[in-house]
TrEMBL record:
NCBIfam families, sorted: PRK08243.1 (NF006091)
Species, as recorded: Streptomyces mangrovisoli
Single GO MF descriptor: monooxygenase activity
Domain FAD-binding: 2-337
Keyword Nucleotide-binding: no
Keywords: Oxidoreductase
InterPro entries found in the cross-reference section: FAD-bd, FAD/NAD-bd_sf, PheA/TfdB_FAD_monoxygenase
Protein name (Swiss-Prot/TrEMBL): 4-hydroxybenzoate 3-monooxygenase
Amino acid sequence: MILGAGPAGLVLGNLLVAAGIDCVVLERASRDRVRTRARAGFLAAHTVRILERHGLAEGLRRHGRPHATCEFRTDDGRFVLDYGALGRGERHTVYPQQDLVADLLGRYLAAGGRIRFETEAVAVRDADGPRPEVAVRDAEGRPGRWRSRYVAGCDGQHGAARRSLPPGAVRHHRDHGVSWLGLLAEAPPSLDAVGYATHTRGFAGHMARTPEITRYYLQYAPGRPADAWSEERIWDELELRMRAAEHGPLRRGRIVGRQVVDLRSDVLEPLRHGSLLLAGDAAGLISPSAAKGANLAVLEAEILAEALIDDLTHGDSVGLDRYSARCLTHIWRAQEFSQWMIRLLHSPSGAGGEASFHDSLRRARIDSLRTSRSQQDWFAEHYVGV
Ligand code: APR
């Protein structure tokens, strides 16, 4: 039983069905919503290798675009890192997540996978036994029950799996004290790179999604509503922070999506509770500062699939016993780098000596990234790695 049809749930479902294991995905959203929901879009090299290994990379091979540079714009000037030529020489593949999810869904159904859309998991019960039960509610609100040998909680940070964890579950968490206004613009990319701008008015970010759609981020006052600023105010603020006067104007267009994102992170430990296992955002939430979320979700799904296949096909439970520890190693390394990026891109809040000291450290980190080859290699390895 898999809760959730996001990257984690659908990669897991594809791998289990390919191994001949019967599974069903319970997804609260409609098929259309699942296939069109714009989310992330930067696939790490490791993620592409996993998808290729399992024959799930056809769409991204055809339509994905390699990406290997990021540009920093700061008070001390602008510099570009060709991270694809640094560290391990790995690149991202830009491929909108909704396209990847649509590919995964199509392959899963074509392989005989079962899914129930508009079916919300309400709770997972008897997880410490061999036949956990999932209580569900369908689109008409009718209750139902499903039982299976294992339940994979791939239903995100607000899903039923997290709500059903036993008292022993530990949640490590951190509120980074920073909010972003995430924007989706009907406009071609303005840079050939991922753009990171630090400014006294706050952070601004630029990430291409497709040749016609670009994602922007603006550091934003916590609690301010997403619709507080007009489109013109948004573009003016983006141009101010990205220093358009020095580096050229941004290519404007209609803002077709807005969402306030409070940068928070959390990690649940352990990721296995008897017959209930967590993967993706259900296992841990990571800030979008380093585009790690979807990549961790795919990695965890492959590790979980291998463990479940060993157990259900060969009666070997070693993979399941080690699942949590294996994933947490990757999760904490990703969290550490994401935290480093947040500190690099945002001036500390507050005033006085403490804040100015931390801001000077931040500028020294940027300067080290600008000038030190070893720091650039470290950055490239962690920026693209998982
Ligand atoms: N019952 C059934 N389905 C649910 C429930 C529920 N109670 N709650 C949530 N869902 C579904 C959501 O509708 C969604 O389709 O679970 C799915 C979770 O998908 P994601 O949020 O994409 O989570 P995941 O697969 O873990 O991928 C995580 O991908 O979205 C990007 O970068 C983002 O870090 C994130 C990563």
